[in-house]
Each structure stands twice: as C-alpha cells, then as structure tokens.
Specification:
377 residues; alpha/beta; 6-stranded mixed β-sheet; 43% helix; 2 domains; Rossmann fold; elongated
C-alpha cells in the first residue's frame, strides 16, 4: 500500500554541524537558539551566513555518510529510515510532506531533508510551512496550528480516498509541535511513528485509535458552528452552550479554537448533510428545498451549506448589500441576462444556486448543475 508520510522537522540537523571545539563557533549555538523563531525578513545577515555554512556542511555529510551516520545526524531521517527498514527504495511511490516552522532555520532544515530524499529517489517530497508557525508566542503557534489543520483537512481526506495509508513521523521536530500532532494524528493518521533512542533505533508504532466525536452534544449549535467556520465572529450569548474548548476569542468576538476547528472538521459531514440550516439572510422556496432533497451525495450537501454560511457572513458584513458577493471570486455572484431580476452564484465549479433579492435577503429558487439551473432559474 502506498503511504503518505508526514514528518515534523526540527533544527538539530543544523545545530549538529556546529564545531564546538572551534573557538570561532563557540557562540553559534546560542545565536541560533536566540533567533530560532525569526523569519526571512527578521533574521540578521550574520545569522543567515551561519545557517548557510551549517547547511552546506549538512548537505555534504549526508551525501557521503553511511546509513548509521545519517540516522544519527537527523532525527527526521532516522524515523524515515526506520519506516523503510533502512531501504529507501521501498518508498519511491510514497508521498512525503515535511512540516517546518515558518522560520529561516525551520525551512532550511526542511530543505536539507527534502534535497537528500529526492536524491535517494523519493521525488514526491514537498515542504509545507504553515504561515506564521513558530514558538515565538502562544498566538503565533496557535495561528500556525490553525493553518496546519486547514491544510490537513484539505489534503489528507482525498489521499485516504485514493487508498494511501497516512503515517505521522514525529521523531523530529519541536516538542510543542509533536504534542499537537500526536493528538491531531489520532483523527487523520493511520499510524503515528516514534523511535527508541539508541543504536538500533527500533520503531514505536501507535495505531489509530477508534476515536469519534459525539455529534449529539453539538448538533443543537450546527448553525452557530457553521457560521464560526465561515469566519463569523459571534457574541458570547450566541455561542452559549458550545463546549468552551471549541471556542476562542478575537477582538471580543467568539471564534473556533484550534480544537474547535479539528472537531468541526470531523463531524461537519454528519451535521451539514441533513436538513437545510435556516440562516438569517436566506429564505428557501419550495423548488430549492426539493432540489436539495434530491441530492444524495453527502459531500455535495455539505459544500452547499458551507457556501450558504459564507454568503450569510458576507451579507451580514455588508448589511444585505449584494455588491460584496459580486466581489468574491469563489462565489461569482451575478445577474442573469434577460431573465428578470434573477441572480445566481456558484457552489462548486459545476453547480449553481439561483435567487432573487428582497430587503437584504436572498430568496433561493433553484440548486443543481449549472445547465439545469441556468435553463430554468
């Protein structure tokens, strides 16, 4: 079975290259430690020079070293070699994602691992660095984890549907990132990999546990959660009853927390594939309800309701002015030509919703494939 191996990347591959016996390098480790959370713009040129030197050393060492030396030099590669029982040719059909912090040191370390794996024939290797992810502050770390969860939700389910086995290699990387991904992996990974310290470096494989979310606890708040997921900031009164762990607060408004986003991703398929949600800015004609009821595919029902939540958010922001919908590239709101005052917007590339407007609300008329809706809006 083909695998997707997601590896967390730390910076020890760089710091291991420091020659501590050289007086000229005695302060390099402390310099790297103190600048570990800086991005490209923030990092001084003197630090970039040190990183460049250490990267060259790491590339040279990995290109000429034996497997035991490689495994000692890089925790990340130690885990990957362990997965393949030291024969990387077994992984030529696998996908590798290297998860790095949004810092110069994190990205450089990931580039070293990426270059090495590609030279070994693992050409389907890519780096993903969640925007802003660092351990500089709780806020920066949380924002980076949020971006990572969104990325996982967009990329991992389709790969699972394509019969890939999902493996989280958490041998390398920062402890804080490992801790989060250990929990997140229980939802997305088929197995989580750690490794024993020592010469033989035996794998520790944690299989996916049968974890499921009790949707009955949050089903009464489906509309609020759908709006939060669409980016609407709600008041504390509007979110009363939603478990506190699912909520965060930004500028006095409630939002989905990191864990709230994770839980929502797991259960939205059940919650949004049922009855139509009665969003405040929308009304449903019987023809629209009938079109919705004819759809049997769960993912289509979910996508429709996610789009309706997004439309509601935009209309709330503009106080019912549909001009904001016209400016949204994904929704592509427009008016039909020579069909009265009937408008339409996009749900997916091949599905549309037709509607009219009344007092800041959209009256939804039809939903379905674009030719069907266009011919009879």
């Amino acid at each position: 079975m083909r695998r997707v191996i997601l590896s967390t990347i730390g910076t020890s591959l760089l710091t291991n290259q420091i020659n501590r016996a050289n007086p000229a390098e005695k302060d390099w480790y402390s310099h790297l430690r103190d600048t570990a959370n800086l991005n490209e713009q923030e990092t001084p040129e003197s630090i970039k020079d040190i990183i460049t030197t250490l990267k060259q050393r790491a590339d040279t060492e990995l290109s000429s070293a034996k497997i035991p030396q490689i495994r000692r030099a890089s925790a990340e590669l130690n885990g990957i070699y362990g997965i393949y029982q030291e024969d990387l040719t077994k992984g030529k059909e696998d996908c590798h994602y290297l998860i790095a912090t949004d810092t110069v040191q994190g990205k450089t370390s990931a580039q070293i691992v990426e270059t090495f794996l590609r030279k070994q024939g693992l050409t389907n290797t890519n780096i993903y660095s969640p925007s802003g992810l660092s351990t500089a502050s709780t806020e920066a770390f949380s924002m980076g984890i949020d971006a990572l969860i969104v990325w996982l939700q967009e990329n991992i389910p389709p790969l699972k549907e394509s019969k890939y086995k999902i493996c989280f290699n958490l041998v390398g990387g920062f402890k804080s990132l490992q801790g989060y991904l250990n929990t997140i992996g229980m939802f997305y990974a088929d197995e989580i990999i750690y490794i024993f310290e020592g010469e033989k470096s035996d794998l520790i494989t944690i299989p996916r546990l049968p974890i499921s979310v009790d949707t009955s606890l949050i089903k009464p708040y489906t509309m609020q959660l759908a709006l939060l997921n669409a980016g609407v900031g709600l008041s504390t009164d509007e979110t009363a009853g939603i478990p506190e762990t699912m909520l965060g607060e930004v500028d006095g408004k409630m939002t989905l927390s990191t864990w709230g986003q994770l839980i929502w991703n797991q259960c939205k398929g059940d919650l949004l594939s049922g009855d139509l949600i009665h969003f405040s800015r929308l009304e449903y004609q019987d023809t629209f309800k009938a079109d919705h009821n004819r759809v049997r595919e769960k993912f289509k029902r979910v996508k429709l309701q996610e789009t309706l939540a997004a439309v509601t958010r935009l209309l709330d922001e503009s106080n019912g002015d549909t001009a904001i919908l016209r400016q949204h590239g994904g929704i592509q709101y427009d008016r039909y030509v020579n069909k009265g005052n009937i408008d339409h917007f996009r749900v997916t590339q091949d599905t549309r919703v037709s509607n009219t407007i009344s007092q800041g609300k959209l009256i939804l008329r039809r939903y379905g494939l674009e030719p069907e809706v266009n011919n009879n809006p």
